[in-house]
Amino acid sequence: MSKKELLINELEQVPEHLLDEVLDFVHFLKTKSTRERIDTAIASESSLRKDWMRPEEDKAWQDL
């Protein structure tokens, strides 16, 4: 049985009054994952900036 199927089976047993909380947690996890990717991209920007700001880079990208 896949993890998704196991999770669905567990969700079917969660009392109705807790489903809002479960849904909030799922949204939190999705947001957290997105935020971590954004943070990584921002952190990479400063270390790559020296390469991006070179005249050779401008020339390589000018026709796109």
How would you explain this protein's 3D organization?
The protein has helices at 3-13, 19-52, 55-61. It is mainly α and 64 residues long. It has a domain at 33-64. The mean pLDDT is 86.
What layout of secondary structure does this protein have?
Layout lengths: L2 H11 L5 H34 L2 H7 L3
Portion of residues in helices?
A: over 70%
Taking the sheet with the most strands, its summary is:
none
Kindly report how far apart the N and C termini lie. Answer: 47 Å
Coarse shape: elongated
Strand content: under 5%
Q: Catalogue the unreliable spans.
A: none
DSSP strand count = 0
Q: Mean pLDDT, rounded to whole units?
A: 86
Structural class: mainly alpha
Provide a count of the helices: 3
Give the SSE order as H and E letters: HHH
Radius of gyration: 22 Å
What are its keywords?
single chain; 64 residues; mainly alpha; 3 helices; 0% strand; elongated
In short:
The protein contains 3 helices and no strands. The protein is mainly alpha-helical.
